[in-house]
Amino acid sequence: MTLSTQKNLTFECETGNYHTFCPISCVSWLYQKIEDSFFLVIGTKTCGYFLQNAMGVMIFAEPRYAMAELEEGDISAQLNDYEELKRLCLQIKKDRNPSVIFWIGTCTTEIIKMDLEGIAPKLEADINISIIVARANGLDYAFTQGEDTVLAAMAQRCPETSCQKDRSDTIIPQSNKHFPLIVFGSLPDSVVQQLTMELKKQNITVSGWLPSTRYTELPAINKDYYVVGINPFLSRTATTLMRRRKTKLIGAPFPIGPDGTRAWVEKICSVFNIVPNGLEKREQEIWASLEEYLKLIRGKSVFFMGDNLLEISLARFLIRCGMTVYEIGIPYMDKRYQGAELALLSQTCLDMDVKIPKIVEKPDNYNQLDRIRDLQPDLVITGMAHANPLEARGINTKWSVEFTFAPIHGFTNARDILELVTRPLRRNNNLKEVSSEIYSSNY
Amino acid sequence: MKLAYWMYAGPAHIGTLRIASSFKNVHAIMHAPLGDDYFNVMRSMLERDRNFTPVTASIVDRHVLARGSQEKVVNNITRKDKEEKPDLVVLTPTCTSSILQEDLQNFVNRASLESRADIILADVNHYRVNELEASDRTLEQIITFYINKAIKNKTLQTQKSVIPSVNIIGVLSLGFHNQHDLVDIKRLFSDLGIKINHIIPENASVHDLKELPKAWFNFVPYRETGLMAAKFLKDKLDMPFIDITPMGIINIKSCVRAIQETISKFGSENNYEEYLNRQTKYISQAAWFSRSIDCQNLTGKTAIVFGDSTHAAAMTQILSEEMGINVLWSGTYCTYDKEWFQEKVSQYCSEVIITDDHNRIGDLIAKTEPNAIFGTQMERHIGKRLNIPCGVISSPVHIQNFPLGYKPFLGYEGTNQIADLIYNSFTLGMEDHLLELFGGHDTTDILTNTLTSQTNISWSPEASRELNKIPGFVRGKVKRNTEKFALQYNNNLVTLEIMYEAKEKVNT
């Protein structure tokens, strides 16, 4: 176990024996977000089985995704990868006619070193359809990081505005008083609109989102554009935008919770030299409207086992709500990309006068269950593998996966986060008569 | 490469894990990348298991790729040995780890030296067998291991029990209605005066395995899992086995007669005929049901059947022989069990289909247009799209296939459940048809679905589009509440801003 301390935050690193979703799960929300896409996961039956079961009913809705299931001949290189992929992609083109096919590389394509990045450009020219390669595999990444690999690959496909004659005109259109801003991260369209409007209120125009609703409408990204992330797991995308597209990253806390949203907007304003207007009042109003939920959780404790990288932002928000956080488990911690969020976490702990929770990277679920037994937190935010067994032991749980699918961003959706967090507590109030005594902590 | 959207049977390691986690105090360690432990989610969610699933992963990551697992697997095994004190650890390769070609057997040997637990390596080829075949193989492997161990230690209990007894082999976790079936099988054997020696692997201890030879015979309720183990016990210890699934009245009869014959060879003379008649007449309502007027209407109705070989074969026979329904075709995705299936069902249907391609099944259903479908969750959805009712009779499983109530498919209570399932599928279909014929239910359309429709409130195009994105079942409520909110502030035009504001302030 390695320990390091930075700005009073404690980081630990455990064994990495924890449960999370495979990063190929990003297919399930990205194919819905990018309407003219098709996702081809190149892997084995194991990958297919996971997607089939994890996506539940969506699988029956003719999803725009499929497995390219590798057979023994592919593994032993008796079959030609190029020819095989060509055959499959032509069929997809014929059946669905997408604007882009995403190839999702998996553990198996990594191990057999299938040269997807090499094959894609050739095949792209051959069959005249865009092919983007993202290696979202379980050897390197966890759950939501899958989206990060896809967006990083997409960032390189965003067009550049060609008209370079009058730079000041292209880069700073007349209507804008600031440099163009691109927001990155996949969100449901309604949340995109809400956040866009939030910025508009401060006279900030969003020039484009990565990803957009259609692949054919990817935003133009030029040198010196500003970019800002909306999710904590997008570090590769941020790096790509900075290094490959020469943009400037606005390092801000993430717009999760009213406190996070305000800090996010304020940070963007400060970069553009805009004095934020009415934000404080807006935040206060949101907090006031949340009072019925806050009453339920104030003074309660929470334990994040860690599986989706939203943990720091959620913990920060819940501390502001008056909860105590015992532990923040997280699969991977990018201290640079999440710098502003970590600073806000420290500040929040200071403001609320609570101890800064320790952050446990690559946690060990077995050890965590030990600690949970000792600490008896009021709420454990965890994956579905542990939820029912913990409930049977009298520990309240909330499935972490729901936070990745529910709209949780911006002022408007703060209520949805608390709706999720308080659900087990509200349920307990309803079930007092039946089950509060039966399920207790006798491990 | 194969373009695949859906698969009927899972990958091999799932089969191994289902066996390992069905035993008591057996722990499986998967040699797998992060995220491959989805099995734990299925156990925990579908079976609503109250205990932690005894499966952990020894994670294969970049470092393992570069340097090999080295001490990692051994350490994970010995650690688990100390933490959980299992009787047996099953090291389970996955499709990813099997192409790494690490010498996992060597890890097993090394870990054996340091562990109290027995350790074995699941011996399945991930690119050649599926979940069902792997479960059959793993169960055989574990039983073989402990029988051989008992022979070596001279602890094998070969003395037969005084009264007739049986081992039930192949009841396991995440099996289609297995828990309910087990209750009815127990009842059947109790009625027949046969003692149950052991049930394997469900909740059994590996220490029980040395007592298996005490039973007079073995019983394999499902073809998919347990046959290999039963054959091993036959070859090694000369134990007879019965593999007739007691699903449907006719099958129960042949199953019980086979039992009678088997135990008579050991000198226990029983005549179960009277019992069979009594059960058929009074306990099972299915036989009476198929004579009743209701069931006459089913005569000549068409159906198709698809599922695993056990359930699809039995269902085909029930529909055809016990209900008088015309089975247009019957099929299974257990392609490896083709000969048996073909022989079993060809007399009851016009065509036998062997495939694991759901598209082919979908097309066939569309082409043949049966009155009802009996299949898996996939056929249920095909049925939804084609407006054909479907009864689910086989895995792949879904949360709905773990009902809280008692719903066996086997035994006499099973016949009642199946009769209900069949009848309900057809009645609903008929009702639907009649409704269509007579133009639907006689209800007056509710003309206004919003209470504020009198006021002249309008929606901006953007807000309107946004409203349409809201799922249908809550759209009305959101619309109403947003309009109320807008009117409260004297707005006659709902814009996006107002919509979001309403969500924030009144939680529309």
UniProtKB/TrEMBL annotation, chain A:
Top enzyme class: oxidoreductase
Keyword Cell membrane: no
InterPro entries for the chain: LIPOR_BchN/ChlN, Nase/OxRdtase_comp1, Protochl_reductN
The protein, known as: Light-independent protochlorophyllide reductase subunit N
Residues annotated for [4Fe-4S] cluster binding in this entry: C22, C47, C107
Alphabetized CDD domains for the sequence: Pchlide_reductase_N
Family per similarity comment: Belongs to the BchN/ChlN family.
EC number: 1.3.7.7
GO BP terms in the entry: light-independent chlorophyll biosynthetic process; photosynthesis, dark reaction
Co-factor(s): [4Fe-4S] cluster
Domain Nitrogenase/oxidoreductase component: 22-423
Cofactor note: Binds 1 [4Fe-4S] cluster per heterodimer. The cluster is bound at the heterodimer interface by residues from both subunits.
Catalytic activity: chlorophyllide a + oxidized 2[4Fe-4S]-[ferredoxin] + 2 ADP + 2 phosphate = protochlorophyllide a + reduced 2[4Fe-4S]-[ferredoxin] + 2 ATP + 2 H2O
GO MF term list: 4 iron, 4 sulfur cluster binding; ATP binding; metal ion binding; oxidoreductase activity, acting on iron-sulfur proteins as donors; oxidoreductase activity, acting on the CH-CH group of donors, iron-sulfur protein as acceptor
PANTHER family registered for this protein in UniProt: LIGHT-INDEPENDENT PROTOCHLOROPHYLLIDE REDUCTASE SUBUNIT N
Coiled-coil region(s): none
SUPFAM superfamilies for this protein: Helical backbone' metal receptor
Classification via Gene3D superfamilies: Nitrogenase molybdenum iron protein domain (3.40.50.1980)
UniProt keyword terms in alphabetical order: 4Fe-4S, ATP-binding, Chlorophyll biosynthesis, Iron, Iron-sulfur, Metal-binding, Nucleotide-binding, Oxidoreductase, Photosynthesis, Plastid
Superkingdom, taxonomy of origin: Eukaryota
TrEMBL record, chain B:
This protein's UniProt keywords: 4Fe-4S, ATP-binding, Chlorophyll biosynthesis, Iron, Iron-sulfur, Metal-binding, Nucleotide-binding, Oxidoreductase, Photosynthesis, Plastid
Active site per the UniProt annotation: D294 (proton donor)
Ligand binding (substrate): G429, M430
Cofactor, how bound (note): Binds 1 [4Fe-4S] cluster per heterodimer. The cluster is bound at the heterodimer interface by residues from both subunits.
EC class: oxidoreductase
InterPro entries: ChlB/BchB/BchZ, LI-POR_suB-like_C, Nase/OxRdtase_comp1, P-CP_red_C, Protochl_reductB, Protochlorophyllide_Rdtase
Catalytic reaction annotation: chlorophyllide a + oxidized 2[4Fe-4S]-[ferredoxin] + 2 ADP + 2 phosphate = protochlorophyllide a + reduced 2[4Fe-4S]-[ferredoxin] + 2 ATP + 2 H2O
EC number: 1.3.7.7
Domain annotation Nitrogenase/oxidoreductase component: ranges: 12-426
GO molecular function per UniProt: 4 iron, 4 sulfur cluster binding; ATP binding; metal ion binding; oxidoreductase activity, acting on iron-sulfur proteins as donors; oxidoreductase activity, acting on the CH-CH group of donors, iron-sulfur protein as acceptor
Residue ranges occupied by any Light-independent protochlorophyllide reductase subunit B-like C-terminal domain in the UniProt entry: 459-503
Pfam family, one: Oxidored_nitro
GO biological process: light-independent chlorophyll biosynthetic process; photosynthesis, dark reaction
SUPFAM superfamilies (UniProt xref): Helical backbone' metal receptor
Cofactor (UniProt): [4Fe-4S] cluster
UniProt pathway: Porphyrin-containing compound metabolism; chlorophyll biosynthesis (light-independent)
Positions of [4Fe-4S] cluster binding: D36
Similarity annotation: Belongs to the ChlB/BchB/BchZ family.
Described purpose of this protein according to its UniProt entry: Component of the dark-operative protochlorophyllide reductase (DPOR) that uses Mg-ATP and reduced ferredoxin to reduce ring D of protochlorophyllide (Pchlide) to form chlorophyllide a (Chlide). This reaction is light-independent. The NB-protein (ChlN-ChlB) is the catalytic component of the complex.
Quaternary structure (record): Protochlorophyllide reductase is composed of three subunits; ChlL, ChlN and ChlB. Forms a heterotetramer of two ChlB and two ChlN subunits.
Protein name per its UniProtKB record: Light-independent protochlorophyllide reductase subunit B
Organism (species): Acrochaetium secundatum
